[in-house]
Hints:
The chain is mainly α. It is built from 33 helices and 11 strands. It folds into 3 domains: 3-45 and 283-449 and 465-501 and 744-900, Up-down Bundle (Multidrug efflux transporter AcrB transmembrane fold), CATH 1.20.1640.10; 71-108 and 224-277, Alpha-Beta Plaits; 112-160 and 171-210 and 563-682, no CATH class. The protein is 68% helix and 5% strand. Strands 2, 3, 4, 5 and 6 form a 5-stranded antiparallel β-sheet that branches. A 4-stranded antiparallel β-sheet has the order 9-10-8-11.
Amino acid sequence: MNIPHLAALAAERFARRPWRVLALAMALSALSLWAVSRLPVHTSRQALLPHDNAVAQRFDAFLDKFGAASDLIVVLEGAPPDELKPFADELATALAAEPEIAQATARLDLRFVLEHAYLAVTPERLGTLAGVLEKFGAGAIPEDSSQVDATLGRLLQWLEGAPAMPAAGIDLPTVEVGLKLLGTSLDEWRRWLSAGEVPAALDWTRLLAGQGGSDIANDGYFVSRDGRMYFLFVHPASASEDFTAIGPFVEKVRAVAADRAAKVRAAGHTAPKVGLTGLPAIEYEEHVSIRHDIALVVGSAAGLIVLLILVVVRSWRWALVIFVPMGLGVLWSLGLALVTIGHLTLITASFIAVLFGLGADYGIFTSARIAEERRRGKPLTEAIGAGMGASFQAVFTAGGASVVIFGALATVDFPGFSELGLVAAKGVMLILVSTWLVQPALYALLPPKLAPLPAAASAGAIEPGRMPFRGSVAAILVAGAVATAAFGIGSGYELPFDYDVLSLLPKDSESAYYQNRMVAESDYQAEVVIFTAPDLEEARRIAAEAGRLGSVAKVQSLMDLFPPDADARALEARRIGELADDGFAVRLARLAAIGLPEGTFGRVRTILEKGGDFIDQSQELAFSAGHSGLVAALEDVRGRLDAVRSAIEADPVQARERSERFFRMLLSAAERGVALLAEWRQARPITPAQLPPALRDRFFAADGTVAVYAFPAKTVYDPANLDRLMQEIYGVSPDATGFPATHQVFSKSVVESFTHGTREAVSVCLLWLALVLRNWRGFVLASMPLLIGGGWMLGLMALCGIRYNYANIIALPLVIALAVDYGVWFSQRWFDLKDRSLTQINRVAGGVIGLAAGTELAGLGAITLANYRGVSSLGVNITVGLLCCLAATLWVAPAIGQLLDSRKKP
Length: 906
């Protein structure tokens, strides 16, 4: 069966009935447009992940029980803490009222936590607190100046005595903690003495540093370590990660934050700078950037291809007969996606630009052969049939190679690549169908004018070659090309992979900027590990073990409020409440009213002086006893005490006034603390149902499942950090989930799928060429430019330091599918033009190949301009690959042909 002859007869028939063919094409296009209008585009990352493994199933199960797994994080900075705090509270309240938002948390519910703090305090500390209250009692608090002076006198007398030798059984950790607390108190006192303006409040971050109360120290707010950034965790109402849910959610948060900032500025204050980060913000930026880039690339690709064709052939009819069949094939492939895959993802949607570049090749090849037949004097319809028949084998070979290459991608495990392979394979097939069906009819209706050929070429004269591809020269050129390609392929195996998803975002990405800062400057980050437990006992175990992991910076759980001995702790708390209610608050208020008279302040200064001597003597005793840690702790306290004394000596009058305010602030805080302790008279164990809604919904599911959250200590985008983290996490609980778990699977699936897909793509491509061409010379001439160009591409990537990433890793299989056309077309023309010189073959074949490559580069080169760096890096890699394959075809393939057919004249 002579298939090219049948293809010629079919094309001639289509050319004789153009309107019928175009009517059929329009009907298919209308049906495709209807299908495309109903084709969903899944924009979430989850759509790219495999869902048939345990990690994905655990994550899906968490989403079903708790809703969205990732919070949008609002970052506030650029204002003093006393302005950031009310802004954060007001913003959280405003956000919580919006229907797109389930929760907005700016701080822990400290009132609730402190009211039930007895559940989180160890029984030993509760006993110690009760003992202190019993020993000293309210009666030990001075009520007037004379009693204050008497108390200070007794303290001074004690300091003037020699310190006692440390006992062998001294509780060093307890003593060192006490000294540290004393040192931070002295530091805060010095701050009040030395500040340019009198502080408005106590710095609880300083006072509670190292005491396990960082959240309380910051009034429950989520802040960076330096206290300059405040974080709000905003939970979406929808668990969907699709842009239809994330888009309105992120935009609503941004709008509400902008409205609050505008009101602050209208009131004459400086509004804080507001930034968004977290996975919802990252995915939002990804979608907005890629959507913009797709529109830019598709529009630019179509325009540049048409412009290139018009400039080269100078005929709008040429542009139509090439561009229209390709465009219809792309449209049909998108319509077919509705009944095959049923949806598009960001990856498959982005592939439209690749189809534009690839699909134009076939129209260029066929129209070039039709033009040759017309120049030979054949009638238009006969020339169309002859040209389509003459080009059929080359187009079928090249197009079929692309189909099997993309089909190989469809076999990989990573859904993002496998779906791309299916969409692309069907897209190429339908572009081929459109080219063979529509182009003959369109060419018959709009036959392009033929440009005149040079006299020598039209006469078929043999021209002298410009490149001496004879003997040793051709062999040296081919050997050098093969050697450099082999070097490139070897280098390609060593190319590193960039696992950082944030590096794919635009250079000015707000979410990446703040995410990196959160990792570096706080114990929080968006990529949180999630543990789930069936009951409180298991959750307590998980929280305790996770807190001891070196790869975890912070654990969030409510297990401190649900200790196993809650009844015993509540009983002791009720006793503390009775003791605290015995007049403490009244006496503290009276003590604060006394102030710090001049005489009393003088005694305080004397105590500071004697305290330094006492510390010196205690250091000597501690050193003699071998307590090096205690010596260091005492030295630290001595330094801070000296700093307070120096600040007092600098301005004693101001120091007395500042010290009085400082002590009154301390007593006021103590009064509030005692009042809170007094409320423990009603202490009882609690149940999850008694938690505030924001806490309950975050940590408890409706079926009783308990969640524990762990913030990684280092970025999870470093594979070494991620592997260590997940190894330790799975050691605590093999059922852990969250972004780090899915990202680990995602990254491994991408790399493994790339390796498998590329290997399979090269194998099936070469096998296809061998089966279709059935000629070893034709096979070598068709495949070598592709292999050499691919090797050069990898070598240039290695030399330029280009890394693989999640976007550009697919570039090599795409280049194979795109550039296989060059060698196939050159091979066919080499054997077709047996009576032509090397120069003439290059002119005939090279001109068409150059135009085809130009359309691909015009279509795909626009990708390099994309704002999303993942897309732009893909464009750079594809552009480099196509240029390498084009150079190999135009410069090395003729030398290969000369070696294969020494009778060919240069």
